[in-house]
Specification:
244 residues; mainly alpha
């Protein structure tokens, strides 16, 4: 066996050992995300994407950093899964268009009034009924067009621990820090109910049904509140995302 063949076989064996050792971590992250996504997303697709993220983590992990490999790998695995979901983008164009209109309406109203835009004001601005507005919120959240991870980037900072990309220069890291501060501030200034839903959903990792039980409202109403919070954040972070 020549040197190249030996190297290839050794690397393949190492990757197999890595996959076996951290398979439970990949599956745990996959099924946690799956509970928050529409039925069209398959667990096998998330797991496959997660395995790719695991291998990338093994190649890029720097043991001199403070984070353990499992913490670092978890962030990379989750980021890889989220990238896979975004690439699939199952939302109809009409849902994208309507969500952008809502975000623009919120931005215009809040700019004019200097306070949080209310449901009926957004509906009136768009010349639609309150029921139609709530349906747009429901559709937007159901398709998971975006989430807090989208404001943070596809992989880096997509978990509880901020790990800057080692390839990023000082300017990129500075901008990343400023974006993190902007997101934190924007969340802190959400209306109380939206802020609580975001905290329970992302920090406490409760699902919509569990949050609904806490508030004494239906799961669909929590879905609307969550969607409105995301659209409001998109409106307030428009100069960062340029997504509308």
């Amino acid at each position: 066996m020549n040197g190249v063949a030996s190297y290839v076989m050794t690397r393949a064996a190492d990757e197999d050992d890595l996959a076996i050792r951290y398979a439970s971590l990949v599956k745990r992250i996959a099924y946690h995300l799956l509970a928050r996504l529409p039925p069209s997303v398959q667990a096998d697709d998330l797991i496959q994407a997660g395995m790719i993220g695991l291998l990338e983590a093994a190649r890029n992990y720097d043991p001199t950093q403070k984070a353990s490999f499992e913490t670092y790998a978890g962030i990379r695995i989750r980021g890889s899964m989220l990238d896979e979901v975004r690439r699939g983008d199952w939302a109809p164009r009409s849902v994208h268009r309507k969500s952008r209109l809502v975000s623009a309406a919120i931005r215009a109203i809040e700019s004019r009034l200097g306070r949080d835009a209310r449901d009926h004001e957004v509906a009136e601005f768009l010349s639609i009924s309150l029921e139609e507005y709530h349906q747009i919120l429901q559709d937007s959240n159901g398709h998971r067009l975006f989430s807090l991870e989208d404001f943070n980037g596809p992989e880096e900072n997509s978990g509880p621990l901020d790990l800057p990309d080692r390839a990023a220069g000082p300017l990129e890291q500075l901008e990343g820090g400023r974006l993190h501060e902007a997101i934190t501030s924007a969340i802190a200034h959400l209306p109380e109910k939206e802020r609580l839903v975001v905290a329970l959903y992302y920090d406490e990792e409760l699902n919509l049904r569990e949050i609904g039980a806490i508030f004494g409202v239906s799961e669909s109403r929590v879905s609307q509140i969550h969607s409105q919070a995301m659209l409001r954040l998109r409106a307030r972070l428009h100069h960062w995302t340029h997504s509308d």
